Amino acid sequence: MRVRYSYFTEYTPELARCLESLGFLPENFVWYEYVKFNIYDDDTRLKIIKEKFPDLSMVQAKYKFSKKEMESAQWFTLRPTNSKLESRFADLTFAGSCLQWQAALETGRASYNHYSQRAPYIMSRQTKWGKSQFLACSTYRLRAIFCSDLARSIIENSGLRGCAFAPVLYYKDASPMPDISQFIIETVIPGDRVRIQGVKEKCRCPVCRREKYIVDSLSRPVVDLNALRDMDFYITEANHAVERDAPEEAYFILSKRAYTLFKEHGMTGSFEVFPLFSLDFGSDHREINYGKNEVPACGQELKEKVKEHFTAQKKQEQAERKDSAEKCKARANKEKAEFERYCERRPDSVMPDFLQELSELGYRTEIFMDVVRIARLHGDDILPLAWKYYRQAKHEYERILMLSLFCFNGGGRYIPQLLQDYTAPETPEDRRAVIAQCVFENRAEEYADEYVKIMAGKRYGQSRQAFVLLAGELKLENAVPVLIKLLDEGDFRLHALVALSAYRREDFRPYFLRFKNSEDLQIRQAAIMALQKLSQAWGKHGGNQGQ
Q1: Which of 63, 205, 289, 533 is most exposed, with the fewest beta carbons within 10 Å of its own?
Q2: CA proximity to 239, closest of 207, 306, 194, 274
Q3: 370 Cβ partners below 8 Å, 6+ apart?
Q4: Helix, strand, or coil here: 345?
Q5: CB-based burial of residue 4 (10 Å sphere; 0-12 exposed, 13-18 middle, 19+ buried)?
């Protein structure tokens, strides 16, 4: 058995240099402005790291058992790792106890609501299983496991004992959802037959005096051997949590026969499974009073309540949509009034004529944002008019508005004219930036030579940054010498690194290594991300034994 520690902390050059000197590759342990890495408790490098950085933040510790340890175990603890399912109408599914607020207020905490399931789970979306045949649903009440019809069939035909299956209901009409069942472990081992190794804290409900254990990822249940009999599935009482305010959970236990079946059919992918720590608790041979988890049934009363909940939710959603529509209408009226005032103050504006011509073509427009929405779908109709009024416009603001439409469908036909305007000496920098964005969005490769000339022309200012990124998007070979040269220009270094990383060429590695310890956070991130892309492309993952 080993323990894998996961660290996640803010990046510092000192920590990065230490990890690199110990054999970790920067592209594997640097993640944006953070450092993340895994290392095992028996790794000699762990002691060195702890001595140099005693306050280093560890976010998780997990057991790793050897193949021999797994094969020799007779019982296992099962923990769901995928809780992507979401339930609806939780107040119908669960019943609570110890809801005496006065007692909770006296303790300063209101976390003593012990829940039990009283009805099937209710969900709104059909599950797509993919490779996994089990998924979990974690509410602020209980954690439950669900399986596909395939998994249910395998379990039922295998003769495994100690489990049952409950339906999952559709939230509109409480009808059973196809291809999903709740996997219920029926036999509950009483609390006096279970201990928890590695408890961090104990607390007690002020109402019923029930104990709650605060645990972490290294805490393990210890079960009395005499309590594990002829069932293949057991569950402990829900009496532990990762925080005082978190819901209480139970440990799921399965036999070696069940684990072997799950593994043979590839059904362990959404579980963490490790050997159960079991002991003979001694000479106490009193009869074991097992608990029983009942399979929840769906009656007519529940169906009516589900329909009531759904109807109330639908009315609320309709009210919210109506409110949103009214706000959108008010915003549109405000924009329309502002547009009319703009045109009144500028009698020479081309905008009224532009919108009028669009109306004659059958497009209903009142403000410029209407034109933007239409241009996304009908660029062939809109762009000829936009180019005409771009040429006629006397105000720079209106020219930029017209140019923004060429980012959409059909703008590629105007690239030669746009580039001509871009390179004109009298074109302002703001307009150049908009033209550069239009060219970038269209990604027309046939004008690659013009892009490279612009990238190399210092007189065009910072608007060249879009062309630098475009060269990487298109992987233009004739742009490589210019990109390498731009690494020496501060305003373009970041964009050049991003562009060069898109090529994924091993001979570019020295350029990325040059900046992997840069004091500039964005430059450092770009260089390390580029190195990660190279590792993915060339399979160079060696040297990080702790990962």
Answers
A1: 289
A2: 194
A3: 363, 364
A4: helix
A5: middle
In DSSP terms, 39 is beta-bridged to: 5
Residue with tokens 């706000």: 327
**Closest by Cα among 144, 255, 238, 138 to 196:** 238
Both structure tokens of 273: 């499974």
Contact 539, 20 (CB under 8 A): no
Per residue in 209-244, pLDDT (tens digit) is: 788 899 988 999 999 999 999 999 999 998 888 887
Checking if the pLDDT of 536 tops 80, the result is no
State pTM to two decimals.
0.68
Q: Cα Rg for the chain, rounded, in angstroms?
A: 32
From residue 314, how far is each of 173, 184, 301, 309 by CA, in Å? 13, 31, 20, 9
Using CA atoms, how far residue 276 sits from 66, 201, 254, in Å, is 14, 22, 9
Q: What whole-number distance in Å separates Cα of residue 467 and Cα of residue 453?
A: 10
Strand pairing class (240-241; 211-214): parallel
SS3 state at 457: coil
Task: Report the C-alpha gap between 116 and 348 in whole angstroms.
Answer: 73
DSSP 447: G
Among 159, 186, 165, CA closest to 177: 165
SS3 11: coil
Q: How far apart are CA 387 and CA 148, in angstroms?
A: 57
